[in-house]
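FAQ: What does the model actually see?

It sees only this:
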Amino acid sequence: MSHSSLLATPAQTRALLRLDPRDDVATALRPLAPGERLEVEGEVIDVREAIPFGHKLALRDLDAGAEVHKFGWPIGALRAPVRAGDHVHDHNVSTQLAGVEGYSYAPFREQPVAPGAPRTFLGYRRADGRVGTRNEIWILPTVGCVGRTAEKIAAIAHARHAATIDGVHAFAHPFGCSQLGDDLGATRRILAALACHPNAGGVLLVGLGCESNQLDSLLAEVPEPLRGRIRTLRAQSAEDEIEEGLALVDALVATAALSTRQEVPLSELVLGLKCGGSDGFSGLTANPLVGRMADRVVGAGGAAILSEIPEIFGAERLLMARARDEHVFDAIVGVVNDFKRYFLAHGEPVSENPSPGNIAGGITTLEEKSLGAVQKAGRSALEDVLRYGERVRRKGLTLLEAPGNDAVSSTALAAAGATVILFTTGRGTPLGFPVPTVKIASNSDLAQRKRGWIDFDAGQVLTNGVDRAADALLDRIVAIAGGAETAAERNGEREIAIWKRGVTL
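And it is asked to produce this:
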């Protein structure tokens, strides 16, 4: 599915946007008042009730029970009849999602997008061949008990070494003890994966000493060739854990400082694809624009990682059709249905989405949200599927198991190896994560109101066309990959969140 061609023409004077000829609704590009008479592709529509910015207007009369189509696909079914010009939203549309489904392998290959002219960025080439977009020291506590200890060491070391490397950052979390089995294992895997990240020129693991997540077990999860850049500190065994930690960081900085930026091809970039706080324009502007970025990077030989499994429910078949082979198809089915079982096992419907902010922004059902969200994946074939805590294994487009929660899924993207995260939003958030997180506003109003949060205005897709916007965004990504700060970095917003799924003792 692709509707980017519909956005190729500027829309300064349009009031409504229909994305596909099969659609029963159009999106309001401004607030609409009852009594307005509008034209949509030659059809005249009389607005019957107020339609907020980003919400949907019916283009034809529909009976109760009829499916409502947007993006050319069903987004739900009507609970009551509507007439052309009516407001179509959660008051009269219901989801059609139920539970675990059966799927058939039916591959379909879209024409890939041409990668464009070769591009480069200034990155840090690591000993194992990977390329980082930052040269930082990361301090990872094994357990929440030493989270503040890690933060104290990082604050002093960051001030001490600000002119030498790109930064020293601690990533505190509340877990690592009172966990059992797979839940403890997942915490260990995600921390070990972060310790392997190419944006970290060195890593300090800070343990307490008595926790379930023992330092030796965590270090054993790191591939042996990468352990040389890692130092460990056991707080209970140290006379002064802050001073000993600082000494270890000083040694890591001395080594990391030997690395310098060098020109590398775009194929060395690993993009994380994330949306948070979506609105009615996320699937029209920001997400398709990010899909262009995924296609350009993948087309150049790089990698892109899509996550948020609950936010592809209702659109999963579009990704399944792009599976590289039947093995990848089966892996997609597995991760999707496992996630649905996770919801059902906790007594929650699989359609327990969108959020209140999504609904206020114009998104009605999970199907609608998902059809917009999967556009971040562009049109490339899906090459691999990763489970939570696993690291990216191959170039191309990868699907990663993680929930929709912004902090949890963005942490998983970073742990998987994303060196830049493209984060689309229609509502805005100040959050930042371990790697540069590029906030892309779906509408220009948000970009103008929250300049301190937003890095790029995707609302220009509607005024300048998607091609010009894509060129501008790629320029911004290249600059950020080469060292330009994101808004979150300027604001000191850096954090992780770990997916907690098990029993706490």
